[in-house]
Specification:
This protein has 292 residues and is α+β, with helices and mostly antiparallel strands. Strands 2, 5, 7, 8, 9, 11, 13 and 14 form an eight-stranded antiparallel β-sheet that branches. Helix content is 24%, strand content 32%. The radius of gyration is 29 Å and the shape is globular.
């Protein structure tokens, strides 16, 4: 009898150990499944977020979506005191490099963008990912034009096109063709009128885009609302957004102060003064220098 009792206890212990081992095995096998499920959930969430962004780019800034007017007058916009705009993932709107008219006062009125020389039929590209807000024609203004609202908070405007290649409410990607260069509307020659706006406020595109060098000025632009004006902060360099006279240079491999000064038509002393550096300062690739 005693032997049978010991045998039962031993068998029970073995069963308990086996069950525990099986449970641990089950948990071990379940772990990668759980990880995969989490990964799938994460991808699904990312997809959902991307879909919502495509539907309403920069929704936290712009609570309304309208295809009616470039101006956002009448909309209840709460413009932040400061906002960092991501310029990475950009595409230049045109491969042409000659700026024919800068941002600022012109002919007793404000020129809210810059004009770049293009020929009729030249391809015009979207600067960033976004959604087409307006595709329209304005006889005494933009001519054929396109307005895009981007995920980074900017709206870009492309005027005087000869042809539209997109439709309203269409989601487009950076570098996608949106139109062809032209001479429509209030225009005295074929060119692209290009504007960058933040919540309706026109900002000098030269603070973000360097057309002669086909690059952005810096990876980020910080909009600041100060006394009714905006200021630009790009990689530690600040300048008032008043007119088109301020120029920047993004340091490339092999650049020296002497080379930059010659290229930008200024002096080494002026560069040092504007950027609070010395003649012996080591320049970093990607660093942004103010040149005027």
């Amino acid at each position: 009898m005693e032997f049978n009792w010991i045998k039962k206890v031993a068998l029970g212990a073995v069963a308990l150990v086996s069950l525990n081992s099986y449970s641990q095995d089950l948990i071990a096998r379940q772990a990668p499944i759980d990880k995969k499920v989490k990964s799938v959930d994460s991808l699904a969430l990312q997809k959902q977020i991307k879909a919502e962004q495509a539907e309403y780019p920069a929704y936290s800034l712009y609570p309304e979506w309208s295809n009616k007017s470039v101006s956002l007058a009448g909309q209840k916009l709460n413009i932040p005191e400061s906002y960092k705009i991501d310029l990475t993932g950009f595409s230049m709107p045109t491969t042409n490099t000659r700026v024919t008219s800068p941002f600022g006062p012109r002919w007793r009125r404000m020129h809210n963008g810059i004009d770049i020389k293009v020929h009729i039929g030249d391809t015009i590209y979207a600067a960033f990912d976004g959604r087409i807000r307006i595709v329209s024609f304005e006889r005494r203004g933009y001519g054929n034009y396109v307005v895009i609202r981007h995920d980074n908070g900017l709206e870009t405007i492309y005027g005087h096109l000869s042809k539209h290649l997109v439709k309203e409410n269409e989601y487009i990607q950076s570098g996608q063709p949106i139109g062809l260069g032209g001479n429509t509307g209030r225009s005295t020659g074929s060119h692209l009128h290009f504007e960058t706006r933040f919540m309706g406020v026109a900002i000098n595109p030269a603070f973000m885009f360097d057309f002669p060098n086909q690059d952005i000025v810096a990876d980020y632009y910080t909009y600041r609302k100060t006394g009714g004006r905006s200021t630009s902060v790009s990689s530690g360099t600040m300048a008032l957004a008043q007119n088109g006279t301020i120029r920047y240079h993004k340091v490339q491999k092999g650049d020296t102060l002497s080379k930059i000064a010659k290229q930008r038509g200024t002096t080494i002393n002026k560069l040092c003064q504007l950027n609070r550096i010395s003649k012996t300062t080591v320049l970093r690739v990607g660093q942004v220098l103010r040149c005027s």
